[in-house]
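Hello again, I could really use a second opinion on something today. I've been staring at a protein lately and its backbone has me curious. You're getting the sequence in one-letter code plus the fold written as tokens. I'd be grateful if you could look everything over and explain what you see. No rush at all, and the record is pasted right below:
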Amino acid sequence: KRGMAVADPSSPYKVRLLVEDYPYASDGLAIWHAIEQWVTEYLAVYYPNDGVLRADVELQAWWKEAREVGHADLKDAPWWPKMQTVAELVKACTTIIWIASALHAAVNFGQYPYAGYLPNRPSVSRKPMPAPGSDEYAELERKPEKVF
């Protein structure tokens, strides 16, 4: 019960966010969808049907190695895709690209130049906003980090 979204077939991304004002999730869904669309179209060129995918011995060997060598401790987990359908390959490739791109950037590239400026992050303020025209407001305009 810790999820941030629920299935919703009527929404553009087939999920509805439980927290509506959550830019990371909103933007992430849009990026995920764009990656997934591109992966689907690209893989359709090489794998027009599931039979072609199942017959690709190099792909099947790669998936076996990823599962059994790369994740030997979890190789028998029931959640692993069997890699028997193009849809399974699309999901695996989308996940890999997401992790190596958007997720990596969000987690590893600091936001300090933006978020370090306190007026950009009102959630870290410890006092109410000063009233316009007050001495505190003038101080806020001069040195926002001191006021908060």
Notes: The mean pLDDT is 90.
